[in-house]
Amino acid sequence: MTSKKILLGITGGVAAYKAAELTRLLVKAGHSVEVVMTESATRFVTPATFQALSGHAVYTDLWDERPSNAMAHIDLSRRADVFLIAPATANTLFKLAHGACDDLLSTLAAARACPLIVAPAMNRQMWDNPPNQRNMAQLRADGVAVFGPANGAQACGETGEGRMLEPEEVAELLEGFFCAKVLAGKKVLLTAGPSYEAIDTVRGITNISSGKMGYALARACRDAGAEVTLISGPTGMEAPLGMRRVDAASARQMHDAVMAEVGQSDIFISVAAVADYRVKNPSAHKIKKGATPPTLELEENPDILATVASLPAAPFCVGFAAESQNLLEFAEAKRQRKKLPLLVANLAQQAMGADDNQVALLDRNGPHPLPSMPKPDVAKAIVEHLAKLLPQNQ
Ligand code: C5P
Questions:
Q1: Distance (Å, rounded) from C-alpha 119 to C-alpha 389?
Q2: What is the pLDDT of residues 19-56, one digit of tens each?
Q3: pTM higher than the cut 0.85
Q4: What is the sign, positive or negative, of the torsion defined by CA atoms of 93, 95, 98, 99?
Q5: Which amino acids bring their CB within 6 angstroms of ligand 1?
Q6: Active site residue 221
Q7: Which terms in the Gene Ontology molecular function aspect does this entry carry (predicted)?
């Protein structure tokens, strides 16, 4: 995202320490961060920490005379692109939901002209408390964006929902918040990663796909406003925030997972590097070393993408082609054979496992080559292109 002016509100929860790392990350990403703290927040972390990390004066007091017109409660949020409150305590969320204006932070929220985002942080019982849930519903209805909370270990020793997201996660979601919502209201189903076909109980046939391109596309679709379901082969990567991930190892498991979901999908993006063949009779026990090497008999896997693309009510289908030679020619033939409105062509030896990728987007108007870019940028370009091809945008 281009550089933004972020007003970061910090309220009095133990997760306030995470706001220090968040400030550092946002500044590192090129944003301008101004910090406002509640009185209780200053009991957990000091304004000096945030002054040093943000490079700006920190505000805590409604009666602060530093802004030229002594109107801190209006000035600070008027010059911001977004007001992000992280952590947001149950008390602050209650105040925001009811329009309270009894300190600088709540008054800034009431007087703001920019979007408001909250990252709640509290004990799981406080999170589930019906009044808190009512406040959250009110805030959502008022158009406030809610990041998290996460489920996990809490400072109080309990485990459950209410933990503030990690600083990297808040920064990632904030990045997405500013993306154009070109897929708003769309349901996207996406496969990613390698497949794994068992030979015996401990060995299998797989490939060097890392899942990075598919996960980047899943995030780009989420950031564009889509509801995303990610069917993932074994990648070892964390499930991206804000989407449902279904794990599937073999081509047949991936096929079944896709077919169970595809009826509800507007768009299907097939990024997974699915094995064309599987072992016909995988051994139920570890194969022992013997005098003669074992022979593997293979049989064909279902082509998930071709199956989905030929459904009577097929979603908008996007395929990938990883070729090692004659890229555009082989890829265009694949696009036509699988009946795809959009196919992303890349060189297998450059793309698989790498952080950057150079692709060409193939549609009925021909190839659209893109420069080599980090995979998250490639993903954004694919999403922008595919949104233009959707039937209602034609
Ligand atoms: O024919 P090829 O395997 O090169 O086609 C690649 C495209 O088809 C990718 O989008 C891949 O995800 C998809 N595919 C599939 N099921 C298979 C093989 C490939 O969905 N069994």
A1: 35
A2: 999 999 999 999 999 999 999 999 999 999 999 999 99
A3: yes
A4: negative
A5: 191, 251, 270-272, 274, 276, 301, 303-305, 319-321, 334
A6: no
A7: FMN binding; metal ion binding; phosphopantothenate--cysteine ligase activity; phosphopantothenoylcysteine decarboxylase activity
